[in-house]
Design a protein that fits this description.
The protein is of the alpha/beta class and 249 residues long. It has one domain: NAD(P)-binding Rossmann-like Domain (Rossmann fold). The chain contains 9 helices and 7 strands. A 7-stranded parallel sheet has the order 3-2-1-4-5-6-7, sandwiched between helices. It starts with 6 loop residues before the first strand and ends in a 7-residue tail after the last strand. The structure holds acetoacetyl-coenzyme A. The site of acetoacetyl-coenzyme A has 19 residues, from helix 5, helix 7 and helix 8. Acetoacetyl-coenzyme A binds next to helix 5, helix 7 and helix 8.
């Protein structure tokens, strides 16, 4: 069944998983806006040229989603340009892996601010409008490591678990107005983030994945595309794992 053309905003939209989400949502007929951090201007320009060469309807929105004020400005500009945002994918995320013994306050705060506070900062700007219009899709990109914890990721695991707590609370507030809020929890995905791990650590993690391989970003994007679609209208407050069997519950 054909869906109306909707506007989708993807935070961290030029990253590994973010790019696949933007490509997939655009192919599914959304008008896609990819948010990127002000420090990524050059990558963003090249990214846009590549997406346009693919014939996709995408545009860019610069903004630091760890800042409430900058999120407000960024979302305001998107709404002014495209009229509304119907689908929000909170995908911006970083790692600062350290054993807890060595973790410093700056590493804790950076990860909580970018991965968790950003979800408040951006969703808050769009929430009232979604309730008023009686339609919205919020999709939070968490992680298997928010579900089971991970050695060296006290900051990341806390932020990612917090995202799903937010999902479950806000899903209850949006349900009666057809605003669904869901979490997708990827396992290990072939991106720059997992490439940054030490080779031996990465290999040992892969050997513990029942499918014996990492995910392709497009395999994560498929779950997001489904949750964004009309077919997923009755799914809210869920946490969908896409992890090759790494964690089951
Ligand atoms: N469980 C128990 N013990 C472990 C362990 C584990 N999972 N991993 C390591 N150890 C032990 C080691 O055997 C070692 O023991 P000894 O001192 O007795 O030899 C000790 O802990 C120190 O380990 P490292 O040598 O790894 O310590 P390090 O200080 O060099 O590195 C680290 C620490 C950077 C946190 C490193 O362990 C690491 O990168 N871990 C992986 C973290 C990870 O999974 N990050 C995911 C990034 S991708 C992502 O986040 C996306 C997503 O959503 C999945």
């Amino acid at each position: 069944m054909a869906q109306p053309t909707r506007v989708a905003l993807v935070t961290g939209g030029i990253g590994g998983i973010g790019t696949a989400i933007c490509q997939r949502l655009a192919k599914d007929g959304h008008r896609v806006v990819a948010n990127y951090h002000p420090s990524e201007q050059e990558q963003a320009d090249a990214w846009l040229v590549a997406r346009q060469a693919e014939g996709l309807d995408v545009s860019l929105a610069v903004g630091d989603v760890s800042s409430f004020a900058d999120s407000q400005r960024m979302v305001g500009e998107v709404v002014e340009r495209l009229g509304t945002v119907d689908v929000l994918v909170n995908c911006a995320g970083i790692t600062r892996d350290k054993t807890f013994k060595r973790m410093e306050q700056a590493q804790w705060e950076a990860v909580i601010n970018v991965n968790l506070n950003s979800v408040f900062n951006v969703t808050r700007q769009l929430w009232d409008g979604m309730l008023e219009r009686g339609f919205g899709r919020i999709i939070n990109i968490s992680s298997v490591n928010g579900q089971r914890g991970q050695f060296g990721q006290a900051n990341y695991s806390a932020a990612k678990a917090g995202m799903h707590g937010f999902t479950m609370a806000v899903a209850q507030e949006g349900a009666a107005r057809n605003v669904t809020v869901n979490t997708v929890s990827p396992g290990y995905v072939e991106t720059a983030m997992t490439l940054a791990m030490r080779d031996d650590v990465r290999e040992s993690i892969i050997s513990g994945i029942p499918m014996r391989r990492m995910a392709q970003p497009a395999e994560i994007a498929a779950a997001i595309a489904f949750l964004a679609s009309d077919e997923a209208a009755y799914i809210t407050g869920a946490n969908i794992p896409v992890n090759g069997g790494l964690f089951m519950h």
